[in-house]
Amino acid sequence: MDLGGVTNLDRCCFLGCCDTRILRITRPFKKVMEIERKWLVDKEVILPLLKSGVRIEQHYLNDINEKWLIRARRYGSMCVLILKVRGMLTRPELEYDITENEYLDTIKYSEKSLKKTRFFLPVQFGEEMYYEIDIYDDYDFITCEVEFISEEEAEYFVPPEWCVKELTNDPDYQNVNLAQ
Q1: What confidence score (pLDDT) does residue 53 get?
Q2: How far apart are CA 16 and CA 18, in angstroms?
C-alpha cells in the first residue's frame, strides 16, 4: 500500500496484513522525512565516552521487499509502530504511538527482529543534534547515525574521526537487513 499521498491529515487509517491477521490503526500519527547518515565507529575511541543508554527492540512485520517497511519498536518504555519507505539517505516515515499491550500483541507476527542499546552524544555545533550510537546484541560492531533537517546539511556534515567508514548507502548495514 503506497501511503506517499498522505500529507495533511490529522488521522490516518492503515490496513496491512501480518500473516493472516489484519492490522487496523486509526489514531494520530507523526509524519517526518527522515534524512540520516550512518557510519561504522571505532570502538576503542567511542566506548569510554558512552554513559547510559536506552534499550531498543524492533520487530519487522512484513516482507522486506515491499516498498513500505512495517516495524514495531520498543524504545525504553515507549512503544511505536513505524511505517518507513525503504531507502538510504532520505525517506518518509509515519510513526504511531501504541500501548505496551498492542506492541506485545503485534510482535507475535514479527518476521525478524533486532535488539540494540542506543547512546546519545551531542554534536558540538548543532542545536538539538545528536550522534546516535548503537551497540547491537548480535554483532561485534558499533554504528553512529545523525539525523538532519535537510539533504544539504547532511551533505556538508563532517563526521568526527571516530566515524571510520560511511555506511549510509550500504544496504548490508540497514537495520532491516541486520535483523534476524
Answers
A1: 94
A2: 7
93 belongs to a structural domain:
yes
In a domain, 152, yes or no: yes
Give the C-alpha separation, 18 to 180, whole Å: 17
Place of cell 496484513: 17
- Supply the DSSP symbol for 8: S
Whole-structure pTM value: 0.81
Q: Please state, in angstroms and rounded to a whole number, the distance separating the CA atoms of residues 28 and 82.
A: 13
Number of domains in the chain: 1
Asked whether the beta carbons of 4 and 95 are under 8 A apart, the reply is no
Residue 2 belongs to some domain of the structure: no
C-alpha cell at 133: 550510537
Looking at the chain, the number of H-run helices and the number of E-run strands are 4, 11
Which residues neighbour 65 within 8 Å (Cβ) at sequence distance 6 or greater? none
Phi-psi region of 128 (alpha: psi -120 to 50; beta: other; left: phi over 0): left
List pLDDT tens digits, range 17-62: 333 333 445 556 677 788 999 999 999 999 999 998 999 999 999 8
Report how far residue 65's alpha carbon sits from residue 122's, in angstroms, rounded to the nearest whole number. 34
